[in-house]
Design goal:
Largest sheet: none
Structural class: mainly alpha
Shape: elongated
Low-confidence stretches: 111-119
Mean pLDDT: 81
Distance between the termini: 73 Å
Length: 139
């Protein structure tokens, strides 16, 4: 059975437009005069699906880079907010800091081994967090 080795220019253009972010899926199909039946056939094609999945993976990887780049800044800002004049803002910042430990801030697995990131709070910050939570519990 002869299997095509590359995608057509039209298939590549559709994939490109799907990731350009300017049009939704149906608008991309309309732009390229592509009916849903043929598009579904493309989605079932191994090579097309592979190219699409690689683009999706690349987009997620790019977003992980952005999140990793700004995580220290966001964490520092949250710690600053624990000292806010507004008790509600301080309380929410404390809760966000505590929940950060249970979310996926750890780096992704590298070579099959999960790296463990140490997350420690200074005694002063921990005291402020506990005090803010205790104040909220009394209200």
């Amino acid at each position: 059975m002869n299997r095509k080795k590359t995608l057509t220019k039209k298939q590549l253009a559709v994939i490109e437009d799907l990731f350009a972010g300017e049009l939704d899926e149906q608008a991309v199909l309309s732009k390229h005069n592509l009916n849903r039946k043929l598009y579904n056939k493309w989605l079932a094609d191994e090579l097309f699906a592979q190219q699409l999945n690689e683009r999706i993976a690349r987009a997620y990887r790019q977003s992980q880079f952005i999140l990793a780049r700004y995580a220290p800044l966001a964490a520092a800002k949250l710690v600053q907010l624990t000292e806010s004049e507004s008790q509600e803002t301080a309380r929410k910042a404390c809760l966000d800091i505590i929940s950060m430990g249970s979310t996926s801030l750890a780096p992704p697995p590298v070579g099959g081994v999960q790296l463990m990131a140490e997350q420690q709070l200074s005694a002063e910050t921990a005291s402020r967090l506990l005090a803010a939570l205790a104040e909220d519990g009394g209200q």
